[in-house]
Amino acid sequence: MLDRFRDKDLVQGALAEIRKITTRPWAIMEICGGQTHAIMQYGLNDLLPKQIELIHGPGCPVCVTSLELVDKAIAIASRENVIFTSYGDMLRVPGSQQDLFSVKAAGGDVRVVYSAIEAVRIAEKNPDKEVVFFGIGFETTAPANAISVVKAKRQGIRNYSMLVSHVCVPPAMHAILGSPNNRVQGFLAAGHVCAVMGYEDYKPIAQQYGVPMAVTGFEPLDLTLGILDTVRMLEKGEVKIVNSYSRAVTREGNRIAQQIIADVFEPCDRQWRGIGLIPMSGWKLKSDYVDYDAELKFQVQDIQTKESEVCISGQILQGLKKPNQCPAFGTLCTPQNPLGATMVSSEGACSAYYRYARD
């Protein structure tokens, strides 16, 4: 089935229609880092008419995880009797002084896992150790991470906890569109987030800022059709939400997943790396699950940090600059020696440019 959404002729047909209807410059942001990588991998940014500028947004959970939380993760992982588990991308993200790989190299028990449930199983098998899971992600990973805490509580597993770093898309949209430096005229909404949450919450945002949005996926045809729908709305002066990813997304989303999130998490203010504090843009564990909050269990709430003065990832995440406009790009900052998370994450804009458009 995916072959159809990678069909060269279908993509070229959609691109031809975009060229046909475009009469003026438009700036469109793809909010998701996975979409950024697909756009760069398939060269869609070069195939679009010159009037269309794609702006890369902050939709990479690894990239926006605050420096404070990375340092807290490093502090916890460095302790004796701790097994620290995380998705692989986070191990290379630089903290103030080192990264989680450095902790592992120094003898810390840092393990890559593919789900929070896997971390719960490790806790079951190691009752004499404290097992911590680095719970990062947008709305997409929140249900599975919430289930891990529910499972641990039901089974009486007391040596499991989560360092929570969940963030939400709508508040980030408000922060971007409400900025005096905003250039975004249209949005490509992330299909996997909308598959969980639906897209009703985006309607008031679109109306408030006069910005049309298209929900789209990650294949070349998905993205091209999403851009086409967005350009159509922009050219007609329409402000609405179009679902360009109906094979995976419904208006209401996944109600069961939403209920799981609501049962376990509650909204909180969250620091975004390179951007700063966005009010009510994250989730934290509810009081019923506070015993599973690693930040409280290990008393690392007061760690303070300072961002690199060289790295411009904050401006990149806000769509104000492109990665290749950074003076450190590809020289002082590489995947082997990153200054910021956007260079090491598999969804980071800098890593996409380094891999697909370094020249």
UniProtKB/TrEMBL annotation:
Coiled-coil ranges per UniProt: none
GO biological process: protein maturation
Keywords: Iron, Metal-binding
MF GO annotations: 4 iron, 4 sulfur cluster binding; carbon monoxide binding; iron ion binding
A Pfam cross-reference name: HypD
Family matches, as InterPro entries: Hyd_form_HypD, HypD_1, HypD_2_sf
PANTHER family listed in its UniProt record: HYDROGENASE MATURATION FACTOR HYPD, HYDROGENASE PROTEIN ASSEMBLY PROTEIN HYPD
Homology family: Belongs to the HypD family.
Protein's name in the database: Hydrogenase expression/formation protein HypD
Organism: Pelolinea submarina
